[in-house]
Amino acid sequence: MDVQLMERWNSLSVSEMRILREIVARIERGDDRVPIRAVAQASFVSTTSIVRLAKKLGFEGFSELLYSLKHERASSLAPNMPGFCERMVASEESRSQLESLAEELALGSYERINIMGVGYSDLTACYLCNRLLEHGFFASTKSPLDFRDDRSYLMLFVSESGETKDLTFVQDRCRPRGVVDYVFTADRSSTLGSGSAHCILVERKGCRADKEENFFVINCLTLVEDLMIRVRELREERES
Asked: Is 239 exposed, middle or buried (0-12, 13-18, 19+ CB in 10 A)?
């Protein structure tokens, strides 16, 4: 991550260089979270100045700048670390859908989040439900068809095959109501995957290409953590 090159190419001011170096230092230190307010305080600037820097560098905001710097850092480490897993558990397009989901959640437009999975996929559904509850969302692993209220809700499905009948049944019933859904699946062409405008394609493979074990659930859990980090970052950015 060549910070000096970034500074030179973009003609950054002294305060802007201080901001950028503070963000990079926290990433290289391995911080899981890099809150915009903490960066602002350490750099002796306002959060508005940080957002302005992100836009100057060609990003929509602080969250996108942070994501890009973290990704660049991970890519630079991969060739030099034996056994290092780059965590390519989902395609770039699916990462884009995950970003879209994070933005939907951060906006808080939905009164309820329903997450459904069956079998091993239910592990991911329950984990995501609990993480959402921890962050103040009204989330449930029950079918939305079991609720008798008029609350607006977002539907999340988890199914490796994308053909789980209990889930395709719910998707079919939700579609006429205009319900927005996101599908975590390993098969984009499946009934669930093709039936959703927001398919998050999750890899079955793990870090070791020579291993045949199925890592779908583990990869889903990794994406859940990435999702919750993004939701926190977006919330903090909007509050600043």
From this structure: exposed
Q: Which residues of 127-152 are buried (b: 16+ CB within 10 A; e: fewer)?
A: bbbebbeeeebebbbebbeeeeeeee
C-alpha to C-alpha distance for 225 and 204, rounded to whole angstroms: 18
Pairing of strands 112-117, 153-158: parallel
| 111 phi/psi in degrees, rounded to 5 | -80, -20
Kindly give the confidence (pLDDT) of every residue in the chain, 240 residues in length, as a single tens digit, with 9 standing for 90 and above.
Answer: 455 656 566 677 889 889 998 998 888 888 878 999 999 999 999 999 999 998 888 888 888 888 878 877 765 554 443 433 344 456 777 888 999 999 999 999 999 999 999 999 999 999 999 999 999 999 999 999 999 888 999 999 999 999 999 999 999 999 999 999 999 999 999 999 999 999 999 988 765 544 567 889 988 998 998 899 889 888 888 776
**Residue 142 structure tokens:** 């029950």
Cα gap 29→198, rounded to integer Å: 34
Q: Whats the size of the chain, residue-wise? A: 240
